[in-house]
Amino acid sequence: DIQMTQSPSSLSASVGDRVTITCRASQDISKYLAWFQQKPGKAPKSLIYAASSLQSGVPSKFSGSGSGTDFTLTISSLQPEDFATYYCQHYNSYPLTFGPGTKVDIK
Amino acid sequence: EVQLVESGGGLVQPGGSLKLSCVASGFTFSDSAVHWVRQASGKGLEWVGRIRTKANSYGTTYAASVKGRFTISRDDSKNTAYLQMNSLKTEDTALYYCTRHDWNEDWGQGTLVTVSS
Prior knowledge:
The structure holds two protein chains of two kinds. By secondary structure, chain A is mainly beta.
């Protein structure tokens, strides 16, 4: 099985900050990588698929990059509604696996 | 608008069974693979399994943790997917979501399954 890791596990940031979250796969997954945002008590929301493609309706302050084993999610200017937990997930093969999550909270 | 609505969760004793449903709307259900993902309280996301389309012979794949106990099926005439859960364990306690596509593009609101005596 492909293992997904994320760093950091949590971070504190201020409104307006640029935030970068890293996701690493235990083996080459090409660009089969998705990112999700989850707020407390809510279902996850898809942000990005194919490593860098923005889902319809997702603001352009979110961007993704990477291929192979190393990926990043960047939020260009953090806003109050962006404080949440972010997960990566590969879909290169089965079983699909998620990263452990990165919690972004207010500094 | 794409909608996925899960139902069927509840309290069940260890060793018991439960069948979850996922009703879809807003897209061509018969053309989409359906996945189930679960999340224990305060924990991360765990993929449970998926069912492919008729064109792909309704192929199913499961996580090792549920293989042999859980079965995913679908009824395209009802735009509904199912998750039959047998031999339930306390560690199966979680919020269960249905999603579509391998990249889990759309999610339902989830249905809570509690396995406890």
